[in-house]
Amino acid sequence: MAGAVEAKLAELGLTLPDVVPPLASYQPAVQSGVYVYTSGQLPMVDGKLAVTGKVGAEVTADEAKELAKTCALNALAAVKSVAGDLDRIARVVKVVGFVASASDFTGQPAVINGASELLGAVLGDKGVHARSAVGVAVLPLDAPVEVEVQVELVGT
User: Are 16 and 80 contacting, i.e. CB atoms less than 8 angstroms apart?
Assistant: First the structure.
């Protein structure tokens, strides 16, 4: 039975995806004490990247913002794989977003807003977090964005 967080996802027209399998030697998420840390989540849908390239060149900022939402959904799936239930999230503590950027692109914060806004829409006040948005030269598989999330759990 889905909890309140997954019901909110459904209300927003979203479905929690399967956990994206690791591309190398790591776990999608690990728990340490009351915290869950996700590995960097790419905007994978059904095992594939829908879009590749640099933001500000092959990928628009608006497209990248949507991809950041997908990354956040994948991060929630990774959290659930460790926590068992997204309703255990006490709060999102930190989000780190990486944007593969054309050399003159400076809109990284607006791109990563896609992830932040999704977490806020799904989790309300529990989704408010600290954040970094970083421009990088290239990401794995030529992904335009990558997002990692740290959450605090209740009931541990």
Answer: yes
